[in-house]
Amino acid sequence: MTQLAGKVALVTGGSRGIGAAIARHLAAQGADVALTYRSGAQEAKSVVAEIESLGRRALAIQADSADAAQVRAAVDRSAAEFGRLDVLVNNAGIFPAKPFEEFTVEEIDNALHIHARAAFVAAQAAVAHMSEGGRIISIGSNLSERAIFDGLALYNLSKSALNGFTKALARELGPRGITVNLVQPGPTDTEMNPAGGGHASVQLGFNALGRFGSAEDIATAVTYLAGPGGRSISGATLTVDGGTNA
């Protein structure tokens, strides 16, 4: 019997990269999985097909994480379609990187909305459907604790908010039996940050293992926290970065 049998999960930004890997891993452990996407309809359809091939139910919902109303609606629809909600993974993200003087107020707001406000709003909506044993897991970044190259001011500002949010929400939801944790990927080979990309050599220069991780590495960590093994872990930050921040 798989460890998440009978559970329902929602993964935001689940059509590609780390989000898609998380959705697949949760399904492989028995969960029915809803995922959101902003524009990658075909990619989302492919992930849904993969999940269904495992014998699980799947649902793709178009929702822009910069829009609070769409975030709430996606959570509520997931719970309504599947009859419950046990796991929320706040994964949707962007990577704004340039000199901090060049960012517009609109770009600042967009990053904060996608990384911080969306996680807050999604959690608000999710707890209305969660019972004891619920899990809220956000995907942050190891860079929020160590800026290893220039241009990260906005990205780090918006991702760092998840650290404080995770601890405060874990304290508040603990009495309800709901855990709240943060997973911080480091150099991970994805479309957003390819192992052969322009910043790869800088990242590898700090990496103790000397290699990029995979999206599956992050998904494995999330799946552990979502399962029985994570029942006593809350308010924690799990950094999966090959020792980059060591």
From TrEMBL:
The lineage of its organism: Bacteria, Bacillati, Actinomycetota, Actinomycetes, Mycobacteriales. This is SDR family oxidoreductase. Belongs to the short-chain dehydrogenases/reductases (SDR) family. It holds the Pfam family adh_short_C2. Residues 7-188 form the Ketoreductase domain. One of its GO terms (molecular function) is oxidoreductase activity. The keyword Oxidoreductase applies. PANTHER family: OXIDOREDUCTASE, SHORT-CHAIN DEHYDROGENASE/REDUCTASE FAMILY (AFU_ORTHOLOGUE AFUA_5G02870), SHORT-CHAIN DEHYDROGENASE_REDUCTASE FAMILY PROTEIN. The keyword Oxidoreductase applies. It comes from Nocardia panacis. Keywords: Oxidoreductase.
